[in-house]
Task: structure prediction
Amino acid sequence: MDRLWATWRATYVSDATDANRNAEQHDCVFCALMERGASKETGIVFLDDVTCCVLNAYPYGSGHLLVLPRRHEGELLSLDAPESAALWATALGAVGAVERAYSPDGVNLGANLGEAAGAGIPAHLHLHVLPRWRGDTNFMTSIGETRVLPESLSDAWDRLTKAWE
Result:
């Protein structure tokens, strides 16, 4: 295998990463939503003193939720033990709500830790909870560059808040 060394890129990658890590809380869409509280307008389905569960504004499918700590933190390993426990409890609540609201064949639960891992908002840690059905993937996304969402965010919020325990 050939190797191409581009050592000059180390500075570029480091600077871009530092800029994302140092994003101010007031620039964070999640922090701004939490300041406004739980409502259909914010998409927040659940909010307590430590965690939040909000609809993904750009969902992969109906019922796509994001679970996050209230504290503006991008690093999973920087959460303290009570925050970690609360985050996991809220993730379990989100999975339960998704299962009750949608009766999916399965659920994806995951995290993209850092921009390089695919995090769209790397400065504020969040988990994805996404209901899945057999056959819910097709050519539309990969070939047609289009997502088919059979439900509005408003309707999803109604279903999920009703199903939250």
Summary: Residues 81-102 form the longest helix (22 residues). The mean pLDDT is 85. The two ends are 54 Å apart (CA to CA).
